[in-house]
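Thread: quick sanity check before group meeting

JM: Hey all, I'm pulling together slides for Thursday and realized we never actually wrote out the predicted structure for the chain we discussed last week. Dropping the sequence here so it's in one place. If anyone has concerns about the input, flag it before I start.
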Amino acid sequence: MASRTYDIFFLRSRRYLPVLMVAAMLGGCSTQATINQPVTHLPEQFSLAGQQQIQPRQQQWWLSFSDPQLEQLMAQALDNNFSLKASAARVKQAEALAKQSGASLLPSLSATADGGRTFRPGPDSDNVQLGLKASYEIDLWSRLEAVEEGAELDYQASRQDLEMAALTISAEVADRWYALLTQQALVKLYQSQLQTLNDQKVIIDLRFQNGQGNSEDVLQQQQQLENLDARLMVARSEQQIIRQQLAVLLGQSQLADPSWNEGLSDGLPDLSPLPDVGLPADVASRRPDLRQAWLELQSKQQGLIVAEADRLPQIRLSASLLSASNDLSVLVDDWATNLAASLTAPLFDGGQRRAEVERQQAVVEESINRYSQKVLEAFADIETALNREFSQQDQLDSITLQLSLAEQTEAIKWARYGNGGTSFLEVLSAQKSRLELEQQQVESHGQLLANRITVHRAIAGDFGFYTESADRSASTTDLGIVLK
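JM (edit): ok, ran it. Output follows.
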């Protein structure tokens, strides 16, 4: 009985062979979205290239600081930061959507089982039905393929967003860590300055008691001490604020690890040579935010293909294999088959589908311009970061030289004051200059570290949190970069 059923199924299926053949021929067709690829003109190299010694760019950029405490902080942040975990969850969502969209390219198959009893005068009757149902949409114009490709591109874009989030978190951790070290250096500086001024005040008090000075000298020195004490309180307060900010980045309520206090005593580190920033043409292929924008642009192109395909006919095939009986013993011996094909073509929709195509074209155009703007902004970010680092280094060198001169001047003024050759006002002026320059030196060093972090963030690049597969990496030409 089963073999006869399949013979009947084959004979009935021959009626649909012409439809299947036409569908197969049309299945190779696809819509084509005509767009202009983004082209961004960039110079061949950065303006400050070659003006400093450089070192190879490291995958984990913070290793260039040779700071064990910073490396531990990075490990904690990348493992425990809740914003980063939220970004990772968004990647899982995008991955699930990509899997869902890919399922539409395959046939669907479902099993059915129904049972019931009819109550009527006389004997009741039972009815049982078993069956299999299948359906499949022939992808005539690559609509389903475009849906799947768009979802896959969105998934890849979300991976780049995760990479960018990790890069941002790592830069913020490093920035807060060295801001904390800067404040600690200021605290130590103010404490040292207070000790020096207190020692000087003892001399001024003795001179006043011996009639060699006046009360104004004592009051002015006391004012200096009070000013320094106020700065010390501000630095300690700022230190606590930064510690709290750093704890949040690590996914903690507070920095409880005592080892961080040991690291604070080491002071500010010296900078290693600049990392190799590469060429402007490499920016788009290296920065996660630009790779994300490029993938999103490609996804929008797939959306345009879907919108154009929605204006064209669609063919869907369906098949079923059913068996119904009131006797379970013969249920599996009597099957009915059905094969159907349906063609759906939009005739009139008031211009709705055409308007959707126009909207998608505008979306693609927006994405092209947004991507091109981001490429220019990324180039400007690197140029700005490099200029600021060079300028900050020059400023730090100048402050260091000024401080050396101020220390010599103050020593001369104190010697003359001790011999009665000058007034305390001149000593006080030289002292204020030296104190301010010492503070500026620490702050300038801290700013130099912050600028270096900005350079690393601007040149970006993968550091191991997510490594894109080689078959999906885009070349410079693919990303629309043209050198001048």
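AS: nice. Residues 1-30, 467-484 have pLDDT under 50 and may be disordered. The beta strands are 40-42, 54-55, 108-118, 125-138, 274-275, 314-325, 336-344, 481-483.
JM: adding both to the slides.
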